[in-house]
Amino acid sequence: MTPRKRSKFKHFLGETIEVFNKNKTSWVGLVILIVMVVIAVLAPLLAPYNPVEQHILQRLQPSSQTYLLGTDHFGRDILSRIIYGARISLTVGVLSILLGLIIGGSFGLVAGYKGGWVDNTIMRVMDVFMSFPTLIMGLLIVAVLGASLTNLIVAIALTVAPRFARIARAPTVTVKERDFVEAGRAMGFSDIRIMVVHILPNILGEILVMASLWIATAVRIEASLSFIGLGVKPPIPTWGGMIREGFEFILDAPWLSVYPGAVILITVFAFNMLGDGLRDALDPKLRE
Known about the structure:
The protein is 76% helix and 0% strand. By secondary structure, it is mostly helical.
């Protein structure tokens, strides 16, 4: 990293910390997510039991010293399954949004820069995809591709990609008219170089803010698809799958669904609080 880039990074980091200090909930969201990531990474060390190991004689046990969050209808430890489920939810959330950002952001960047019929064609296709609700769109894609971790990531990525295309296009239309872009054209720079080197860094902030907010949506979509049986196949633990498995025991053993549902709620709130702070830090008007 060059001294100039290092100086810009330190300046941005200082402004972000200042904004986070004003908006305390951003720190709360960041701390919760760091804890979630640590738990997911260290799952084999933190989980008290094997998440798929069955103890039929201990089925549907409430919270106790042996099983802190109780057991499910197969006698599996709920706490261990929630800890391992964090791996699936966070992996799907981050990778699907990253893939959707790359796909949608690329289309939006090209559409905004080229304009004309290219812009109209790309954005009308994006409008068709956006006409479907996110959950319905994800449901259709997973139903076609089949239920697996990879297909789930691809399905959610294709669902959110049109949103990123719109987010990337709008600032691109403005930035491409600035003097430094015109200077690049005059010097004979290729369109790809202008888009990647000169325009992308100036619109990346807005895209990253929306990415942090949409990770929460991806986690929710993954849980919803797992709930209806189109997520990762059992016995791999997922939060949505745990809610679905506990739904038929909701009256006799409500902890089967309540605990994973509470974890999903906390995770979604954490991403939203962090995204709110990043938006304030990256938007000059809000920062002022």
